[in-house]
């Protein structure tokens, strides 16, 4: 008499890949989150509360701010940290909720493409901003 | 036994006529999510009126249903005293051991009728009624190497450990592998192969054991994409554990060990 078993062997999971990627991304979320609290709250305070808030924002105001490397650096780090922080968060959400491998793959591709586009466009504007364009 | 279940020839597990209702018993509705793979395509709810004493356990109610109402009800239980970890199920929506939940804690306020819902633990394939296939759970358990790993010559005497070293992993030695924690974890419900809290708890038990030398192997395994970094610290596992293990804390300790190793 032979043993009739559905699963004669236990399923195997792939061997550990010895990659620290998930560790790094977990750590990045914590550190960038802390940095973003300062960067974003500071940004919101300057833009919306200080000195008349949104009503004084115009081309000249932005041009004035971006003439200083400090604010250029502030906005650039905010752009990169927020985009990668949010993108990585969405990556984990997709990993958790996508049911099919193909759905997961295409959602992630869309996410990565949008991240690259936004980072490239944002960095391009900050680095090549020309305050001498006549404001309308 | 070749004939179908009748009153003369009851289904396996049935014990004949209903016993007299004890004094002080109230009738509660036990609503069970049932599934018979031979006839059902979807699980269905079925309700039973069961006389219950406040001091009864939910397991007693299930026994009553199986022994005196419907002998086809299928569930696991072994010791019935919260040690073997066989009867994990979703009771009123939370994962508990049926042998550790008392009816008096589930009774409706005032004189309102009481309904107790019982469903199989979530995220594992249901074989029948409350009986689930534990293999995915056990596979994750085996994958973290839950046994003593040592290298070099074996000592001639027993492996000595100080009380403080033993205390380090005391909490995670309490696990009874009931799967309450793992099947309460939203990440485990997903179609992935996340190890789940129970496997990490059992890895923790050896990673922090001063006599064990396999910590690096286990940390490598848990450092993977399906390892501890998928934990979202929802604390469902800590809330579900019938042994009171601080499961989320154990997972965080493994994360910290990974962060600061070497």
Automatic annotation (TrEMBL), chain A:
Cellular component, GO annotation: membrane
A Pfam family of this chain: Sdh_cyt
CDD domains membership: SQR_TypeA_SdhD_like
Location(s), subcellular: Membrane
Swiss-Prot/TrEMBL keywords: Heme, Iron, Membrane, Metal-binding, Transmembrane, Transmembrane helix
Protein's UniProt keywords contain Iron: yes
Coiled coil ranges: none
SUPFAM superfamilies linked to this entry: Fumarate reductase respiratory complex transmembrane subunits (SSF81343)
Record Gene3D superfamilies: Fumarate reductase/succinate dehydrogenase, transmembrane subunit
Chain segments annotated as transmembrane: 21-46, 105-127
InterPro entries found in the cross-reference section: SQR/QFR_C/D, SuccDH_FuR_B_TM-su
GO molecular function, one term: metal ion binding
Stated name of the protein: Succinate dehydrogenase / fumarate reductase membrane anchor subunit
Species annotation: Actinokineospora iranica
Species classification: Bacteria, Bacillati, Actinomycetota, Actinomycetes, Pseudonocardiales
From TrEMBL, chain B:
Top EC class of this enzyme: oxidoreductase
Domain 4Fe-4S ferredoxin-type intervals: 165-187
Signal peptide: none
Record Gene3D superfamilies: 3.10.20.30, Alpha-helical ferredoxin
PROSITE patterns (UniProt xref): 4FE4S_FER_1, 4FE4S_FER_2
Names of required cofactors: [2Fe-2S] cluster; [4Fe-4S] cluster; [3Fe-4S] cluster
Short name of any one Pfam family annotated for the protein: Fer2_3
GO biological process, one term: respiratory electron transport chain
InterPro entries in UniProt: 2Fe-2S_ferredoxin-like_sf, 4Fe4S_Fe-S-bd, 4Fe4S_Fe_S_CS, Beta-grasp_dom_sf, Helical_ferredxn, SDH/FRD_Iron-Sulfur, Succ_DH/fum_Rdtase_Fe-S, Succ_DH/fum_Rdtase_N
Example of a GO cellular component annotation carried by this entry: plasma membrane
Disordered: annotated span: 1-23
Keywords from the named record: 2Fe-2S, 3Fe-4S, 4Fe-4S, Iron, Iron-sulfur, Metal-binding, Oxidoreductase, Tricarboxylic acid cycle
Entry's Gene Ontology molecular function annotations: 2 iron, 2 sulfur cluster binding; 3 iron, 4 sulfur cluster binding; 4 iron, 4 sulfur cluster binding; electron transfer activity; metal ion binding; succinate dehydrogenase (quinone) activity
Assigned EC number: 1.3.5.1
Biased composition (Polar residues): 1-10
Family statement: Belongs to the succinate dehydrogenase/fumarate reductase iron-sulfur protein family.
NCBIfam families, alphabetized: dhsB (TIGR00384), PRK05950.1 (NF004616)
Classification via PANTHER family: SUCCINATE DEHYDROGENASE [UBIQUINONE] IRON-SULFUR SUBUNIT, MITOCHONDRIAL, SUCCINATE DEHYDROGENASE IRON-SULFUR PROTEIN
Annotated protein name in UniProt: succinate dehydrogenase
Organism of derivation: Actinokineospora iranica
């Amino acid at each position: 008499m032979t043993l009739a078993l559905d699963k004669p062997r236990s399923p195997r999971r792939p061997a550990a890949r010895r990659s620290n990627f998930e560790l790094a991304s977990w750590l990045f979320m914590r550190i960038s989150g802390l940095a973003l609290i300062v960067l974003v709250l500071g940004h919101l305070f300057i833009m919306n509360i200080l000195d008349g808030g949104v009503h004084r924002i115009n081309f000249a105001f932005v041009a004035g701010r971006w003439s200083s490397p400090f604010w250029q650096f502030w906005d650039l780090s905010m752009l990169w940290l927020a985009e990668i922080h949010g993108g990585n968060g969405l990556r984990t959400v997709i990993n958790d909720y996508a049911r099919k491998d193909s759905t997961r793959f295409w959602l992630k591709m869309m996410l990565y493409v949008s991240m690259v586009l936004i980072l490239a466009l944002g960095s391009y504007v900050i680095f090549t901003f020309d305050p001498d364009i006549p404001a309308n | 036994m070749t004939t179908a279940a009748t009153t003369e020839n009851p289904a396996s597990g049935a014990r004949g006529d209903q016993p007299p209702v004890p004094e002080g018993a109230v009738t509660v509705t036990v609503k069970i999510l049932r599934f018979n793979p031979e006839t059902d395509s979807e699980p269905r709810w079925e309700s039973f009126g069961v006389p219950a004493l406040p001091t009864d356990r939910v397991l007693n109610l299930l026994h009553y249903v199986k022994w005196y109402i419907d002998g086809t009800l299928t569930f696991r239980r072994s010791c019935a005293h919260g040690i073997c970890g066989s009867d994990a199920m979703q009771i009123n929506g939370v994962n508990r051991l049926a042998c550790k939940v008392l009816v008096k804690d589930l009774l409706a306020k005032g004189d309102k009728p009481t309904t107790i819902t019982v469903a199989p633990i979530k995220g594992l394939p249901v074989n029948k009624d409350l009986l689930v296939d534990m293999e995915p759970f056990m596979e994750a358990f085996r994958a973290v190497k839950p046994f003593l790993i040592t290298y070099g010559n074996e000592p001639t005497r027993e492996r000595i450990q100080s009380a403080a070293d033993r205390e380090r992993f005391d909490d995670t030695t309490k696990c009874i592998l009931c799967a309450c924690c793992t099947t309460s974890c939203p990440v485990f419900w997903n179609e992935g192969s996340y190890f789940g809290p129970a496997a990490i708890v059992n890895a923790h038990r050896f990673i922090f054991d001063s006599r064990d030398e396999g910590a690096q192997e286990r940390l490598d395994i848990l450092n993977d994409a399906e390892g501890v970094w998928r934990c979202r610290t929802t604390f469902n596992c800590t809330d579900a554990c019938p042994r009171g293990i601080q499961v989320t804390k154990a997972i965080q300790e493994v994360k910290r060990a990974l962060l600061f190793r070497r």
